[in-house]
Task: structure prediction
Amino acid sequence: MNSALLYNIARFILLILAQVAIFNKFNFLGYINPYPYVLFILLYPVNSNKNGLLLASFLLGITMDMFSNSGGVHAAACVTLAYLRPSFFKFSFGLSYEYQTVKINDRLTPERFSFLLIAVSTHHLILFLLEIFRFSFFWNILLRTILSTIFTLLLCILLIYLFKPNKN
Result:
C-alpha cells in the first residue's frame, strides 16, 4: 500500500468519527447542521481513480446513513457530489484542472473558494431535498441549505488549514 492510500483511509475514518461523535450533535435553531465529512470527497486526489472515488463516496455516505438513520440520503448526496466533482473542478479551475495541477489544501484562492462553495452547496441541496422530499417546504429546504452551507464551508476551511500537510 502506498502512503496516499493510507492517508485517504485515515482521513475517511477520522472524518466519519468526527462527524458522528461531534458534528451530528450540532443543530443550531433547527436549520444549521455542519457536515464536514464531505471534505473526504473534496480533498480526494485529482489524479486518482474516479471509480474509486465513487465507491469511497458511497461507503462514506452509507456509513453516515447508518449512524444517522437517514435512509440513504447521505449516500445519494455523496455519490452525486463525487460524480459532479470533475465538472466543478473544470468550472472553478479551468486549465489548471486539465493539467491536474490542482491542490485544494494550498492557500485559499478565489478558485478554491468557488470550488468549495459550489461542491458543499450542491451536496447540502441534494441532502435536504431528499431528506424533506416535499416541495411545499421549498423555503425551509433553501434556508437549511444556505445556512448549513455557510457553517460547513467555514468549518471545512478551518479544518483544511488546521490539518494542512507540512511542505518539506
Observations:
- The chain has seven helices and no strands.
- The first helix runs from residue 3 to 21.
- The mean pLDDT is 85.
